[in-house]
Amino acid sequence: MTKLRLHHVQYGRSFRVLWLLEEIGLAQKLGADLEVTEYLIGTNEMRESDLPKLSPAVRIPALEIGDLQMAESGAIVEYLTETYAPELAVVPGDPERPAYLQWLHYAETQASLIEQLNLQMVFLRPPTVASPVVIKLNVARLRSTLKGLETHLEGRDWLLDRGFCAADVMYGFNLFAAPFYVKLDEFPNIRAYKSRMEAMASFQRAVAREGEQRFYAQDFYPVPEH
Ligand SMILES: N[C@@H](CCC(=O)N[C@@H](CS)C(=O)NCC(=O)O)C(=O)O
């Protein structure tokens, strides 16, 4: 049986890959069992596992398909779609290719801000103190990326005119983590976009596999006063 193994962290970027694997139905296509290896960030689990052999920066996601080993969520999303679901990719020469690449990679501009906020608000432990200035700055920068996405989504169901594609999958992590730092009340297009994701059967299967949210200890993290 072909090996199909995803290295995963709850509420992390690996959700993008988990969702895409469900959308493609890759386990069924390969006649494989999807094995999900979950880690707890902030422990030694990742360094002490075989992840360092798979992921140059020892980060998740990493994906193994047979002998193939790959890290970087965006790269994995591009590879999986062009190899197994070309209808979700946009090929070179297609007029929507520049927009496809732009929005696929914009997701990481946004995700890196979420990551900085996770670092300050979730991972720092006493006696280390989070920096209100850095938090305030990163919240403002995250809000600004959400505004850019909100404007783009005006009058659209998905990022591209052709409909749901691999670039949308990248936001399956971002838009579920961002609201812990920036409320989405001011972004109606993003809220509707999220609802469209949540209505997809593949998304629901990925959420069911991931289980209840356990990563964040509270529903919202306000910017500390000082
Ligand atoms: N650009 C990479 C970023 C990967 C990344 O930073 N993943 C986070 C979880 S979302 C991680 O593994 N963090 C562990 C750490 O920082 O030690 C990607 O998209 O895969």
How do you describe this structure in short?
With 226 residues, the protein is α+β, with helices and mostly antiparallel strands.
Plain-language structure description:
With 226 residues, the chain is α+β, with helices and mostly antiparallel strands. It has 2 domains: 4-88, Glutaredoxin (3-Layer(aba) Sandwich); 97-200, Glutathione S-transferase Yfyf (Class Pi), Chain A, domain 2 (Up-down Bundle), CATH 1.20.1050. The protein has helices at 14-24, 26-30, 45-48, 51-54, 73-84, 97-123, 132-153, 166-169, 171-177, 188-198, 201-210; strands at residues 4-9, 34-39, 62-65, 68-71. Strands 2-1-3-4 form a 4-stranded mixed β-sheet, with helices on one face. Strand 3 (62-65) and strand 4 (68-71) form a beta hairpin. It is globular. The mean pLDDT is 97. The protein binds glutathione. Glutathione binds next to helix 5 and helix 6.
**Strand residue content:** 5-15%
Bound molecules: glutathione
Number of helices: 11
Beginning-to-end CA distance, first to last residue: 56 Å
Which CATH top level class of the largest domain fits?
A: Mainly Alpha
Summarize the helix and strand pattern as letters: EHHEHHEEHHHHHHH
How would you describe this structure in keywords?
Glutaredoxin, alpha+beta, 11 helices, 2 domains, Glutathione S-transferase Yfyf (Class Pi), Chain A, domain 2
Helices and strands in order, then pairings?
Blueprint: E1 4-9, H1 14-24, H2 26-30, E2 34-39, H3 45-48, H4 51-54, E3 62-65, E4 68-71, H5 73-84, H6 97-123, H7 132-153, H8 166-169, H9 171-177, H10 188-198, H11 201-210
Parallel strand pairs: 1-2
Antiparallel strand pairs: 1-3, 3-4
Helix pairs in contact: 1-5, 1-11, 6-7, 6-9, 7-10
Bound molecules: glutathione.
